[in-house]
Amino acid sequence: MSTSKACFRNLLLQNTVARQLSHSFSSGRIAQTYLFAGSESTGRLPAAKAFAALLQCAKPLALDGLAADACGSCESCLRIAADSHPDVTTVRPDGYEIRIDQVRALQDAAALKPGTGRWLIFILDPADRLNQSSANSLLKILEEAPSHVVFILIARETGAILPTVLSRSEIVRFASPAPSEIRATLAEKYPLSADNAAICCSLGEGRLGQALMLAESSLPEISHPGLKYSHTDYLNTIETTSRYWQEVFAGAASLEEAMRLAARPCHELYAPLLASRKEFCRSLLMTAALPASFPVIFADMLIDRLDSAVRAMQKSFEPLFAEAKKAYPAAVIKDLDGTISSMLNAWSGQQLEELLLCLLNWYSDTLKIACGADETLLLNLDRKEDIITLAAVDDIALLRARIELVEKSAGLLRRHVQPALVVENLITQIGGLEP
How many Cβ atoms sit within 10 Å of the Cβ of residue 427? Predict the structure, then answer.
């Protein structure tokens, strides 16, 4: 449960967003639909809650250069911070998608009057998980909803939203903070050394939210063992991560609680996995002579390890399902099982996306140095010497080609091309340092 105040003054490195929404409120021009567009971990959900708190606040404030902000202390603000306000609803995917039955339930709720607040507020997080049917159903609601209803859609990019929904939305863009801004924020907010602030920024792949979580936890040990050890350690840490979540799921008191927990692996980081993945990517790019058989062997092992991890996590739910069968019809149990399976498989797919993002950030840093950029612009500042080495060997044209290759591979994964083939082809073409 969240305990921090839901207000714009707690929103880090998004001053433009705070001013835009604050002005929207103070001028009385409240749109019915907002689209909060930006990368993950840029503060989109905290901003949505801060705006909802301002809309419902009993005594809004004007301070810190903002036309208006939630007070953070009235009953309404406290309940929004605790995710317990009856007039503020967050709709999240049921499995991988936001389904049409969820949107229909939202439609019924939107037809009601606010219970305690001035507005009925619905936050869809993430709205780019609406499928075609649920997106079309949402459009109908947007066309018919009463004036006291506000929708906040959270998405990575505007292109993921139906044009007809987009045309009805006020777009609020969230910029990704520069690595130097993230490091400075971490050093200011926590008792961290410059080196540890750089490690948090690097392991979080330049995402402020993840860097903040890392700063609040014990940093994992980071070593430089080379490809022979690092690829094995990375695969083993996937298994360790699975065991960690199995223990979490096994501690659930009921199937309903376990279902809520099943969504956590996609949203909560496991620091040892971030460190082992980072070291594997470093070793892969720094290896001068990549064995010819390595790409196909590693790709198969990676997909097999991810599949095994998901099966093991699913198995940890079996005792809860056995108990639930006494209370629920078979059709309900089957649907719940499918929902949990979708959530855990989404985690598996996320691991492949994160691997490619890590490689992309290595190459992006290397290109910056090759083009003569200042080292403070680096995301992986803690691996500066490695990046300088890569930049001295790979020329600018090759680095740009490899960035394009990684981005293309990410696109293939999103189009559900066989993951093992995508990973194998990517590593084959990367092939370590050029001689």
Answer: 20
Alpha-carbon distances of 325 from 182, 255, 344, rounded to whole Å: 48, 10, 21
Q: Are 53 and 80 in contact (CB under 8 A)?
A: yes
110: closest CA among 76, 148, 84? 148
| Rounded Cα–Cα distance for residues 310 and 283 (Å) | 26
pLDDT (tens digit, 9 = 90+) per residue, 245-261?
A: 999 998 888 877 887 78
| pLDDT classification of 33: cutoffs 50, 70, 90 | very high
Q: What is the DSSP string of 383-430?
A: GHHHHHHHHHHS-HHHHHHHHHHHHHHHHHHHTT--HHHHHHHHHHHH
Q: 283 is written with which tokens? A: 């070793």
Structure tokens at 198: 């750089």
Number of H helices, E strands in the chain: 18, 5
The Cα–Cα gap between 213 and 407 comes to 27
Instruction: Give the tens place of pLDDT for each residue, 282-298.
Output: 999 988 778 889 999 99
Q: What is the CATH number assigned to the segment(s) 8-176?
A: 3.40.50.300
Q: At what angle do helices 255-262 and 330-370 cross, to 10 degrees?
A: 20
The owner of tokens 């993430």 is: 126
pLDDT of residue 221: 78
Residue whose C-alpha is closest to residue 189's, from 168, 219, 212, 167: 212
In the chain, the amino acid numbered 89 is T
**Exposed/middle/buried for residue 253 (C-beta within 10 Å: 0-12, 13-18, 19+):** exposed
DSSP, collapsed to helix, strand or coil, labels residue 297 as helix
- What pLDDT digit, counting tens, does each position of 351-368 carry? 999 999 999 999 999 999
CA distances from 223 to 86, 188, 214, 227 (A): 48, 27, 17, 12
Work out the angle between the directed axes of helices 271-286 and 330-370 (0-180°, nearest 10): 40
Report the candidate in 373, 356, 369 with the shortest Cα–Cα distance to residue 411: 356
- How many residues in total does the chain contain? 435
pLDDT of residue 433 exceeding 60: no
Compute CA distances 65 → 70, 174, 354, whole Å. 14, 19, 37
Instruction: Name the pLDDT band for 239 (thresholds 50, 70, 90).
Output: very high
In the three-class reduction of DSSP (H, G, I as helix; E, B as strand; rest coil), residue 39 is classed as coil
pLDDT for 217: 86
Computed over every residue of the chain, the mean pLDDT equals 90
